[in-house]
Predict the structure.
Amino acid sequence: MSLESFWFGLIAVLWAGYFLLEGFDFGVGMLLPFLPRRGSERERSIMFEAIGPVWDGNEVWLVVAAGATFSAFPLWYATMFSGFYIALLLILVLLIVRVVSFEWREKSEHPRWRTAWLLANTVGSFGAPLIWGIALANLIHGVPLNSSHGFAGDFLDLFSAYTVLAGLAAVALFAFHGATYLTLRTVGDFRERAATAAARLSVPAVVLAACFVVWTVIVAHDRNGRGILPTAIPAALTTGAVALALILTYAGKRGWAFVMTALGAIGVVATIFTGLYPRVVVSHPTFANSLTISNAASGPYALKVITIVALIFTPIVILYQSWTYYVFRKRIAGEPVRAPLAPPREGSGVIPG
């Protein structure tokens, strides 16, 4: 295997890790306005606590994927940031709003304040995967590139029926993934409502994900000259995984249902990258201008150096994050949230404390 192929595969693994881990906490964020009982601050806090210790660690996979792309395929990185600039800027804003919501929500006990930041988290959790799905689908669907591999289109060129389906499939699958995650992290009545939500989300998630991966097989053949079989294998496995997740959800096998939604998230990335190889950005309508793993890669010496670094530090990151999940494995019951004590009225004779 060449170093270019190795790094293409490693970047695919990093994106798969991002979809797997960030996928369920995006899903929990989408469900924030819907799962808790009306006015139940305790149940909202349970949902925030379920992802609170891990969400920032999950985003490390995105940072590493971007860094790996910049190091191994600088021309790929440059083309994406020039062509998808507005889309990536929107994602950055959504992620910042989501990050801020975790911290600022706790700055006040006022119901309107907390509700505003809860909704901000939901908007970020919905918008980011929608745009990520659209952006990644464009890599294989094709964007207009000139002879210097620069983006020659505009923002509207990123939208087509296929790429919008990709965004919607990511949203539905992540919401389903998040619901199954909550069935493993919570207890009691809230856990049962999370299971009910997972069952309701399973059908649209399966339909959208299956339609997307099947369409990806067709797009890879038509736009990228790929044979049917290489892309059809991960597409079939992905469809099988999400279909099993639906069956297991209705059967009450919640742990296995989560495993299947996780495999579904991984499978979506595997289908895209299998259909994309050996190109990293397909050019359409001028296919000859496409970026490949060869013409977008760094020099041999740079690839050797970063390969050594990756082989040392990637296992460390995986071990550290696995330990984090082990430490925070306990189910969350949540503590009742007490309303803040009203300050004593002047002259009442009540001494605070």
The CA atoms of residues 46 and 334 lie 5 Å apart. Residues 188-224 form the longest helix (37 residues).
